[in-house]
Amino acid sequence: MRYLRILAWAAAAFCLAVPLRAQVPGRINFQGKLLDTSNNPRNGPYDMTFRVFNLPTSGTSLWSETQTGVSVGNGVFSVQLGAVAPIAASVFASSAAYLEIQVGSEVGVPRQQLVTSPYAFTAQLASTATVAATALDLVSGDTDYIQNRSALQAGAVFYVSSATVGGPFTATGTVKLGGVSGVSDVTVQSDLVVSGNLTANGAGPHVFTGDILAGGDIKTVGGNILDSAGTSRIAIGGTILLNGNLSVPAGQNGVNFSTGVFFNGAASGDNYIAYPFQASTVLSPGNVVIITGANTVGTTTTAGSAAAIGFAVTSALGTNDTVWVAMSGIMTNAVSNAAIAFGARVCTSATAGRVQSCNVTGAPVGKALTGTTGGGQTLTVVMYTGN
């Protein structure tokens, strides 16, 4: 054999009409002509080995395969490169590629440079990329891009400036929401399921209108978690399911459940359970209150009133305002009408909202855990009703 002359070749492995997510076949249609030393065309079956190198001479072999019994008629043969060993997209990721053909023991020279169509293989690498040039250095399993797959992509870290999730969002690790230094807010309108910790950074508000299911901690850094109404407390419109404890740091306002229970863990030592009522008058935190009607509370100037039920823990600006009333636990900001001794039973007094020591017939609202030396002073009361 004197030499091999390539008549034509084309790449059918990939074309622009193929959807970006289609699997690239890994083959190239190739046609050549085999001549003997007198330039006469050869005929018959031949074993041919095809190799792709990165240089026109020497260099590194990037791919090779041997096809046996290739039919040659009047010197012409046609094969599909990659029919035996599929050609990986990475073969054409370098700046140049050269095809070498060996027939039997004879190697044809020079190597033929492959151009244009075979480089469509790199489109496989760009199937999930916005900019194809960026994807040239990426391979399957790379942690630098998001893959469309059913299993977790281990080791990958993604930064998304904007995204919309139409259904449930599931994360098995730590999810941090919000921008640097509180620039961005977080809004979740569907359910949020987190097996690890959920941390919302920034000043917020961080609004959750669906359910939050967390296997770890729910934290805010520099902001609150609010419902669409927005309050200074943590108010969730959906369901909170916790595998651990629900705690409120000292000095915080508490956790507000729409079912009507308010837990407080303030630094002052308040520790109570409260329920919502409608106010029949202006009320301030620490006011002792009585039942004034169906689900309504107010104050009284009757000492030892049997209608006393507890202490207001939030303010009410007037009639029909919602006020939370602590009915059990410890209240630290009750206000005395006169001197009250430690351990004394306390009840309503002649001054609206204040407490005094009960006489024998008075209906107590609790017992003094601290004493006062006169009126207008605060004291701590452990709450109970009855004699």
Explain the overall architecture.
By secondary structure, the chain is mostly beta strands. It has three domains: 3-125, Immunoglobulin-like; 169-246; 271-383, Beta Barrel (Virus Head Decoration Protein, Chain: A), CATH 2.40.300. Helices cover 2% and strands 38% of the residues. The protein is built from two helices and 30 strands. It has helices at residues 122-125, 132-135; strands spanning 3-10, 28-35, 44-53, 61-72, 76-81, 97-103, 106-107, 112-114, 169-171, 175-177, 186-188, 192-194, 198-201, 206-208, 212-214, 218-221, 225-226, 234-235, 240-242, 255-257, 261-263, 271-279, 288-293, 296-298, 308-312, 322-335, 345-348, 355-357, 366-368, 378-383. The strands form six sheets. Strands 3, 4, 6, 7 and 8 form a five-stranded antiparallel beta sheet that branches. The chain is rod-shaped. The termini are far apart. Residues 6-22, 127-136 and 179-184 have low confidence and may be disordered.
